[in-house]
Amino acid sequence: DEVLGIANNRLIRIDLSVGDVVKTWRYNTMRQWNVNWDIKQVAIEFDGNVNIAFSCVTADCKIVHEYIGGYIFIGVLNEELFHKLTGGHEAL
Questions:
Q1: pLDDT 10s digits, 74-87
Q2: CATH code reported for the domain at 2-86
Q3: Could you state, in order of their start, the residue ranges of all structural domains in the chain?
């Protein structure tokens, strides 16, 4: 089994059987992301055509969405990227 951790500057895929980090993805390489609220799934595209998708099992997708959005804004400090990734429109 694996779990996805949400850190302040990256997503972390962890192998639960041994606790090892399998892969990390930094927010500053994120191109876009989408949440399917009906099936509780988050899909993210990173630079280099790297795509990941995961289901929200133990937390509401809204919480996951807000954590990632907040960490992008605080960690990356790029208001234009924040609005692109979280709101789908340009910053005012």
A1: 776 777 777 776 66
A2: 2.30.29.30
A3: 2-86
